[in-house]
Design brief:
- The structure holds three protein chains of three kinds.
- Chain A is built from six helices and eleven strands.
- Chain A is an alpha+beta fold.
- In chain A, strands 1, 2, 3, 4, 5, 6, 7, 8, 9 and 10 form a ten-stranded antiparallel β-sheet that branches.
- The radius of gyration of chain A is 22 Å and the shape is globular.
- In chain B, strands 1-3-4-6-5 form a five-stranded mixed beta barrel.
- The longest helix of chain B is centred in the first third of the chain and has 17 residues.
- By secondary structure, chain C is an alpha+beta fold.
- In chain C, the strands form two sheets. In chain C, strands 2, 4, 5, 6, 7, 8, 9, 10, 11 and 12 form a ten-stranded antiparallel β-sheet that branches. A two-stranded parallel ribbon of chain C has the order 1-3.
- The longest helix of chain C is centred in the N-terminal third of the chain and has 20 residues.
- The chains are: A alpha+beta, B alpha+beta, C alpha+beta.
- Chains in contact: A-B, A-C, B-C.
- At the A-B interface, α1, α3, β11 and α6 of A face α1, α2, β2, α3 and β7 of B.
Chain lengths: 272, 133, 282
């Protein structure tokens, strides 16, 4: 019995610490998951209307940097329910990612270098809100982070054969029932699929599937097809966004003092 | 029975280790998570810009000398959505603040990443630490 | 051999015919310009379309002159110089702004490098309001739905969201690049009244017209005909201007069949070099 005492104390300490850490985030929760909110709205032409102010979580409001948030309201999907597979990199691509130094990885991140996140990172790794203004002829997407936009025409106009490399690609949309499918090609080579070094080739093709099962929920599913980088196409979990209160803020990157500091670290790393 | 308790303890420990206090992607590169401490001082200025807000605090060091420290925050949207507004900062200029922050890795003086902040005027604990994304 | 070529030519001609005339109804043929063509002031094009709530629908891709053709002056076409202007100064003259003596002196004191660095095309910061209307040679896409006007600004890929339901200014307006708007329709004109501006913007690129924290910008936007967007700007700034300044009614024209482009400022290494010039020049 004596031998077990330290273990029991350790266990008790662990759980107490957990509880203490969680105290700020324990119940009662002030930020909870949104209910479905009834049927989704429709456009005059009968299609689902994706218009709204969307937050990348289940709460319809900010969940970052706050206490009192119900864990069920955080995040865009539950990995136990809809697991998201790891991308299957080709050996050369996996090696390239692994060879990035910590500073190179930092400098590649949009949140550090202030370049646009681009597609599909804007749907996969974006803690800020997105506004969609959707009419039968077009869908404008306004991304709060860095105040960017993307315009998707839904009037059947022809898609250029050799699109210029853009941060958000060139979209080719079509409806499949109540799901809007957008296939995009022609991407600027400076974007990353995720800010963990996942780069892409010029053969990147991104497919987005938008659905709105209820008033308060937008679901975006992404497929990344990159035959030069991936062994096979990668599909995200269905990611949820919830309807916010319409307060959208300006976010222009005008001060990034860290960049110079990070560059210095890069020099130190190279000097090793 | 003991195996199960051990297992649970192991799991609890893993959970603790896996949840860093105020980690952020660039936090690790620029700031030192092992050099965090509490600060008390007078708020002198706020710079309301992106991708980082900055606030400045006059802090007396152990020798009694007052230095003006700068603290880096989340992007402004995150602060606002969590209920910390520019107006709040401006209203507290000249007043006491309590900050917990972590020092820069490269030894840069009087410069830290803010993790939490409390205005003496309302005593509410606010997260300032950078976003984990 | 000849038969093949002629058949091929006929096939190509047939395809071209099909392409030109079987475009979906909603996608318009782009107005084109090339060597040998004449480009003049675009015709009004009939009445402006109306939105479901009865207001003029401002939706469209708009070009900042009266040709309706982006960069017409670069196409080799014979372009009427009057069409390259947003208004006719003989008909609707635009008085220059009258600056307070201190402000005028400050602007005059800028050296060449400071003047360069204040230019939005150099420093890559958002143009802000009202420079996006007064000093902008790129397109603007407007998207209007009931209660909402969204402005997609081609240069620097920024956007602006304007609620058109007359909601008041916020109690504590933050200094924003596009200010804090309060907007409502007055008949067929959308009136947007904005306050609270970021200090780093310039009203226009001419002579580095800076502003104070008391800047107030009033936009009056209407669509007098299908092809025309009309914008009139009033600038109030009691710390910089001797009296409020109002622009002439400025005209933008509808562009069809072409899309707004991405335009991100991702490489402008010159700015640091400019800064060095500045410190050397002092």
């Amino acid at each position: 019995m004596k031998l077990h005492q330290p273990l029991i104390i350790l266990i008790l300490v662990s759980f107490v610490s957990l509880t203490a850490a969680a105290q700020q985030d324990g119940p009662p929760y002030t930020v909870k998951p949104l209910p479905p909110g009834g049927a989704p709205p429709r456009l005059p032409d009968g299609h689902i209307d994706f218009s709204g102010h969307w937050l990348p979580n289940g709460a319809g409001q900010g969940v970052s940097g706050r206490f009192g948030v119900d864990p069920a309201a955080r995040g865009q999907f539950d990995p136990k329910v809809t697991p998201e597979p790891r991308p299957a990199f080709q050996p050369w691509a996996a090696a390239k990612i692994k060879s990035m130094s910590p500073t190179e990885l930092e400098l590649s991140r949009s949140s550090v270098n202030c370049m646009p996140r681009g597609l599909p990172a804007i749907w996969l790794q974006n803690p800020y809100s997105t506004v969609i203004v959707h009419t039968p002829k077009m869908m404008a997407q306004l991304y709060e982070v860095l105040n960017n936009w993307r315009l998707v025409h839904l009037d059947g106009r022809p898609v250029p054969k050799n699109p210029e490399p853009w941060f958000h690609g060139t979209p080719n949309p079509h409806w499949e029932g109540d799901t809007l499918v957008i296939e995009s090609t022609g991407f600027d080579d400076r974007t990353y699929i995720q800010p963990n070094g996942w780069f892409h080739s010029d053969e990147l093709k991104v497919t987005e599937r938008y659905s709105r099962p209820s008033m308060n929920y937008l679901i975006v599913e992404i497929t990344v097809d990159d035959p030069k980088v991936l062994e096979r196409p990668w599909k995200s979990a269905p990611r949820r966004w919830t309807l916010g209160n319409g307060e959208v803020y300006e976010f222009y990157c005008t001060n990034n003092k860290e960049l110079e500091e990070l560059e210095k670290l890069k020099e130190l790393e190279a000097g090793k | 029975m003991m195996a199960r308790i051990l297992g649970a303890a192991a799991a609890a420990l893993v959970l603790l280790v896996a949840a860093p206090s105020s980690a952020h992607h660039s936090f690790a590169a620029e700031f030192d998570g092992s050099k965090c401490r509490d600060f008390t001082g007078t708020l002198t200025k706020v710079e309301w810009a992106n991708p980082h807000g900055f606030f400045y605090v006059d802090i007396k060091d152990p020798d009694g000398k007052v230095n003006n420290w700068s603290f880096q925050t989340y992007a402004l949207i995150t602060l606002r959505r969590a209920g910390t507004t520019r107006e709040l900062f401006l209203d507290n200029v000249g007043k006491e603040v309590f900050v917990r922050g972590c020092l820069a890795r490269n030894g840069r003086e009087h410069y830290a990443a803010a993790g939490t902040l409390k205005f003496a005027s309302d005593g509410i604990l606010r997260q300032m630490g950078q976003l984990q994304d | 051999m000849r038969l093949h070529i002629r058949a091929a030519a006929a096939a190509v001609a047939a395809l071209a015919f099909l392409y030109v005339f079987s475009l979906p109804a909603a996608a318009q043929r782009p107005r084109t310009a090339g060597p040998g063509q004449k480009v003049g002031i675009l015709e009004p094009g009939g009445p402006a379309p109306r939105a479901s709530d009865g207001h003029p629908d401002l939706t469209g891709m708009w070009w900042p002159n009266r040709t309706g053709i982006p960069h017409a002056e670069n196409t080799g076409a014979d372009v009427d110089r009057a069409a390259l202007r947003q208004f006719d100064p003989a008909k609707t003259p635009e008085a220059p702004p009258v600056f307070l003596p201190e402000a005028a002196a400050k602007m005059k004191a800028l050296n060449a490098t400071q003047r360069e660095l204040s230019k939005l095309s150099v420093n890559c910061i958002p143009r802000g309001l009202p420079a996006i209307w007064l000093s902008n040679t790129y397109a603007v896409q407007l998207v209007q739905t009931p209660g909402l006007l969204v402005q997609l600004i081609e240069v620097l890929n920024n956007f602006r969201i304007i609620h058109t339901d007359g909601r008041p200014h916020p109690k504590y307006p933050e200094p924003l690049y596009h200010g804090n708007p309060s907007a409502k329709w007055e008949g067929d004109t959308l009136v947007i009244d904005s306050i609270g501006f970021d200090p780093s913007t310039f009203v226009s690129n001419n002579g580095s017209w800076f502003h104070s924290d008391e800047l107030r910008v009033i936009e009056r936007i209407s669509r007098p005909s299908r092809n025309y967007l009309q914008i009139q700007i009033t600038v109030e700034d009691p710390k910089v201007l001797a009296r409020p300044w109002t622009s002439a009614p400025r005209h933008w024209t509808l562009v069809e069949g072409e899309d707004v482009h991405e335009y991100y400022c991702t490489n402008n290494p010159d700015v640091d070099e400019f800064q060095k010039l500045d410190s050397q020049g002092k």
